[in-house]
Request: fold
Amino acid sequence: MDKRTELEKLGEFGLIDKLAENIKIHHASTVKGIGDDCAVIDAGEKYMLVTTDTLVENIHFNLMYSPLKHLGYKSAVVNFSDIYAMNGDVRQIVVSIAVSNRFSIEAIEEIYDGIKKACELYQVDLVGGDTTSSTGGLIITITAIGEVAKDEIVYRAGGAEKELLVVSGNLGAAFMGLQILERERQIYLENPSVQPALEGVDYILERQLKPEARKDVVHFLKTLDVKPTSMIDISDGLASEILHLCKAGDLGCTIYDEKIPIDQETFSNAREFNLDPTTCALNGGEDYELLFSIKQSDYDKIKDSEHLKVIGHYTDKNSGANIVARDGSVVALKAQGWNHFSAE
Amino acid sequence: MDKRTELEKLGEFGLIDKLAENIKIHHASTVKGIGDDCAVIDAGEKYMLVTTDTLVENIHFNLMYSPLKHLGYKSAVVNFSDIYAMNGDVRQIVVSIAVSNRFSIEAIEEIYDGIKKACELYQVDLVGGDTTSSTGGLIITITAIGEVAKDEIVYRAGGAEKELLVVSGNLGAAFMGLQILERERQIYLENPSVQPALEGVDYILERQLKPEARKDVVHFLKTLDVKPTSMIDISDGLASEILHLCKAGDLGCTIYDEKIPIDQETFSNAREFNLDPTTCALNGGEDYELLFSIKQSDYDKIKDSEHLKVIGHYTDKNSGANIVARDGSVVALKAQGWNHFSAE
Reply:
């Protein structure tokens, strides 16, 4: 181990690619390994879906403003989101928590209360876990198990040229919520007697602290008889996810700035922070909305839904991934997303 | 959250019991939740097994003497062990690693090399994961997925009075390996120029640094046509695991000190450390051997195996869990095991 390459050099996705090199698959039941929102296992009649996500104190959350119950809830929901992104349904989770002695039993129970609350709401069974101590902060790793009928599964790959790109809900809100919380934290650190200014920002704070996964969208599409041709959940920002879909599908895309759904509260707070709302949506992350493609012939089925918005379409690979700005200029999409390794 | 109860008050198992309270199961496919070596999910033809384990730097390992590759190997194997303890076979794992910036890409690759090596040897598919940064040390969480034919599954519960208690391999070696490593670490900290005295202790060091899971025992029992009636893996020390089996099966037991298998290297090093070898076996932990019960009628099938040792038998619950010392005196078994929360 003479060579030393810094983590930030590769970034998260470069690292995943590197670690995935030379992995040998031994079992026919392993349908899909690394490279989608979930691993896919052939369980006979159905596919089982497996995904894991870790939330680390002071990287993914700050206990100064994250209530423990919300944190538990969020740590479950971010995993559910990956299962829905495969068009599946979540069945079970196992929870692994590492905490230092500065946490009391009541504190761990609060985290678990949040996890149980999410399980109750999304109809998921908490079936196991591991609780251990850590010498540093709090770390929560949840692995979710889901299932999906074999003919219902949707991968990142599978889209085709001219198919429509659709997002659920709205984007950038969780990122703006984080900006508010960080601002108030700084103010508090400088002067603990100042009351936090959190009025009129309930929606974006909730999107950050207690996000929801779009189980409803997956079920809604089924009732409309629309099966996405490709899908991913938006955890790292719209730009990053679109590039994942294009790469997986060997496609390009054109999306339109003016079509990206942004809530009014996100918009006005972005302005207040001198941030471009579109940039918040493209690069903010933690939205846990779904981004998917549908056949043009399915457009009529979704066009009246207030929760779904067509933002563009797939193109051929050589055209690249582009965004058309409001002034008509065309800009290549870049994923700035999150790079946890360069943040420190 | 006004009340504050310290973690050490409950211990790991008390905490698990507390957190498992009020968990509602929504899906018929959840056959077994918290309370065995794995969760059990009905996948149609077979049962799927799910287990998760976290290794935390400076709690479960010390990088001063744990080579990263061994550490990766061990973090995979400890999960495999839980699947074998249900009489299953491991199929897939997902890996979650949190590291600080002090780790290079090459360091993470070494950990993965160890994980891949274990996967290769045990025929397991690495199908996904999450790599993120941490502000503290290194934390590895692995979730393993296994499968088992429905009529082959073995739980902790299921034993009966008079059935024989059997252990594979030998016990206490990993614990003695740890004592050696800790002693050398202390010596090194006091005087870095002293060469570590690690001669003649290869076996016990390997049991600590690069343990194996007993896939071979599970397969061997099948070839003998012996199906254990109850089983658990020995991760927290023999005493703790026996008490788990007795509690799950609503039984008592009698085991015999003189029958507990202890390797000569473990024995002589224990003596050198002024430790009772039996105590090391009972409370040491990290053996990853299997402890199981068999019907008396199966005794003849296993009695000639050098890898299996009958150490006692189940009794009725009211007799309690006891160990018969070499002098014939009877002592109630107590689990001292590991309590990570009181260690700091």
About this structure: The longest strand of chain A covers residues 46-56. Confidence is low (pLDDT under 50) at residues 337-344 of chain A.
